[in-house]
Amino acid sequence: MSDPFTGLPNEEIARKLDLILEEVSAYSVDIAEDPTLPELGTKYLQRVLSQCRNYTNRVTFYLQAVMRLDKALKSEIRLTELDLEFKVRAKLADDPVVRQQSSIEDRKAVAFGMLRAESECLDGLRVRLVDIEETVKILKMKHGELLRTSTDIKLQRSIVKDDKDSQLRGDEGYSKPQAAQDRSVPEGMPAAVSSDPMNPVDILDHGVKAEDLPAPVDSVHARQILEFLNSPSEKSKALCSVCGEPQLTTPGGAVCKNGHGGVDPLEPGQVPLEGSVDRTATAPVIEDEPAIRSVSYADLID
Fold it and tell me: What whole-number distance in Å separates Cα of residue 139 and Cα of residue 66?
């Protein structure tokens, strides 16, 4: 393939760049989720891999052509800058109108004003360079996308090959039944997250050591775990004889969240004075509650 920009004037080059970007934007390869389906056939992977390779070659050709154009334009810009700089120095040295100016900045301004045509030509070249550089960026991005797609197709082909080899050896291969609604797989791995709602009380159950409790990092960490596990739960705390709420131990004595301080705890079988609290109509019997198991440091590090 010949250079697509050969013999084109500057006005046509910008239009050609737009046509190239419009063409490569349509270069997209769709990969099937399961290439082993009967309707795809055995040559499906070869077809999509060949299509991706053809697209990559075409984008590579355009990228090389635009980069050659970028290289030639940068060389032309540099030559134009050197020529303009030489003419400005000549004006500063020989032109009587320029030499009459009082300061060097005024002399340069007058010299550049006399060379307005050369300056406008240089500005036009720089604008063309910006267009070409942005086109190169887009082509490089498309080229990298096609390369990644080709890698994905090859990986998919490798997985299919391994699956067929596994089935020929008598194994099940990679084919697994669909996951259930709770994300569980029959005869497979359990769901990563339980679908049943979890109560915080079930997580922070005092007196029960979790099976997956991590080992303490140091003695301070072990003491913190012991204090949490051995602390009394809400069920085992003494209840206020006025409202039936659990009493908290404070420096001033026992008090509940309703502010009833200095009262005796609720006795077994006793009804609180404020009978409007339904959940404490009958005081719970502390003795019938399961005993809190004490946890030692040895239990934590086992």
Answer: 9
